[in-house]
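Prompt: For my understanding, could you write out one protein's sequence and backbone structure tokens?
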Amino acid sequence: MKFFTLLFCLGISWVVYSGADMTQEKAVALVRQLPEVQKYLKKVPNAHIEMDHETDSQSAWVVHVFEIKNGHTATLNWFEVDKKTGKIQKEFH
């Protein structure tokens, strides 16, 4: 059985992941569940949450949360999701 546990400490989010390998789809789903992303989605219902790329070390997926506003991309944040642990790190703090 696969399961997710979300842990939050001092505004920094960690996700403990157990189960099969971290896929791009699972990484996007984990980022979508973060409270700050949920809050953003309520304010910006047309926001995008997309897997953007794999890190150079190939150890994590990078997920982009953004909206298209006035002809340009307005980024909430980039989230790096570790493929082994599911730990999420924000690019912008």
About this structure: The chain has one domain: 3-90. The two ends are 33 Å apart (CA to CA). Helices lie at 24-33, 35-43. Strands lie at 3-9, 12-18, 48-54, 60-69, 72-82, 88-90.
